[in-house]
Amino acid sequence: MSDKEKEEIDNQESTESVENVDGLNDEQAQSQTEENQADEDSENSSEQDELSVVKNELEELKDKHLRLQAEFDNYRRRTLKEKAELISSAGEKVLKDLLPVIDDLDRAMESTATAQDVAAVREGLDLIVNKFQNFLKNNGVSEIEAKEQDFDADKHEAVTKFPAPSEDLKGKVIDVVQKGYTLNGKVMRFAKVVVGE
User: Fold this and answer.
1) CA distance 33 to 113
2) 4 and 81 in one domain?
3) Residue 159's Cα: distance from chain center in Å?
């Protein structure tokens, strides 16, 4: 073989090896591209899955929020209605308990028209007054003790001052012009009193 033939064979082999390498490089590049594409597809797929999960959670939270808001509106309306009903009928029990006392007063008025025994009328009125005082006690109303007590601005309202009939009544209540009352310990009406000086 001549040198020329050897050269051609070498060139041919090198070309074939380059082609083989290029072929391998093309295959590797294509394989790499396919792998990259698969990775991108899986990333896109996982991102879409995450996005759909987040969207579902957001929809659930919106739904819960709307339901909670609706429940609160219903609760608010219901409590306002109950409060209005309570206010309109709050005095009903007290007034209902007062009706027997009014009935007794009516009977007393009828009997005074024809009564000739003043003692019997007085006894009947005493019973009605006692019944009414029991009614007040049962509803938490009590009278403020004032006569001959030390003047207390938290319970008494001084109408006037008057010279005390004795030294021990100075600064004390010597007369009650109008009784005072408390409701469950809270002053409803101050006792109007005359204070000794």
Assistant:
1) 119
2) yes
3) 43
Return the pLDDT at 18.
46
Quote the CA–CA distance of 155 and 144 in Å, as a whole number.
7
Listed in sequence order, the residues at least 6 apart from 98 whose beta carbon sits closer than 8 Å to its beta carbon are 135
- Strands in 191-196's sheet, in edge-to-edge order, are 156-162, 191-196, 173-178
Are 195 and 180 contained in the same domain? Answer: yes
Q: What does DSSP say about strands 173-178 and 186-189: parallel, antiparallel, or unpaired?
A: unpaired
With a CB cutoff of 8 Å and minimum separation 6, the contacts of 19 are: none
pLDDT (tens digit, 9 = 90+) per residue, 114-126? Answer: 878 888 888 888 9
Same domain, 18 and 41: yes
Q: pTM here?
A: 0.52
- Name the band, by pLDDT with cuts 50, 70 and 90, for residue 21: very low
Q: Are 3 and 79 contained in the same domain? A: yes
Name the one residue in this structure whose structure tokens are 């991102």: 47
What's 197's DSSP letter? Answer: -
Q: Please say whether the beta carbons of 169 and 148 come within 8 A.
A: yes
